[in-house]
Amino acid sequence: MNKTLIALAVAGALVGCSSQQDAAPENPALESTDEKVSYGMGLVMGERMGNDLPDLKMDQFLQGIQHGHDGDEEQTRMSREEIQEALMAYQAQLQEQESAKTEELAQKNREAGEEFLAENAERDGVETTDSGLQYEILEEGNGEKPGADDRVKVHYTGELISGEVFDSSRERGEPVTFGLNQVIPGWTEGLQLMSEGSRAKLYIPADLAYGPGGNQRIGPNETLVFDVELLEINPE
């Protein structure tokens, strides 16, 4: 989205640049520095426009560049206000399209997560809480269980239901410490079901994770799977 808006801004600025030129030959010379720079700038801009504005209308775009470069206000076909209105309308159109795609993906992820959790609940050793959180104790510890206001030191690996790892303290080689009131609800609840020294898998529905907003690594309404080791409660 940001790249597209930048490209739009560049297009608007070009229209505002201040000489009508004859139609360019099919293969103009590339001998002088000015000729090479001019071609190079056009090539780079064309690549960006191709990536960021796939619906760009080339005839209108080139005419806008030509009129802007010529600097003749009488030949320009749009006022600055009309250009701004068009840019804002296009931005709103893009946002609407992006929102529709996000909603579609969120629904798809929610349905996939619900199907996964329904099947997972039937496996031996998997428990389901009233909130919908599922957990599976892999190794039982012999320590105490943390409270909602405690801090914990853990090692973990986070996966999507596809098996893709999106985060792992094990891969980084260093456990993390945080307060149970500082994390997603699925972690807050799940860690309180574990004894110090235990290892478990937490199967967290989207509503107890990042919900329809997701985050940078996690899509909207993703169900998450965490393999967690509770190393220590309230470490020094």
Automatic annotation (TrEMBL):
It catalyses: [protein]-peptidylproline (omega=180) = [protein]-peptidylproline (omega=0). Residues 149-234 form the PPIase FKBP-type domain. Keywords: Coiled coil, Isomerase, Rotamase, Signal. SUPFAM superfamilies: FKBP-like. One of its GO terms (molecular function) is peptidyl-prolyl cis-trans isomerase activity. Residues 80-111 form a coiled coil. PROSITE patterns: FKBP_PPIASE, PROKAR_LIPOPROTEIN. Residues 1-23 form the signal peptide. It comes from the Bacteria. Its EC number is 5.2.1.8. It holds the Pfam family FKBP_C. GO terms for biological process: protein folding. Belongs to the FKBP-type PPIase family. This is Peptidyl-prolyl cis-trans isomerase. It comes from Marinobacter panjinensis.
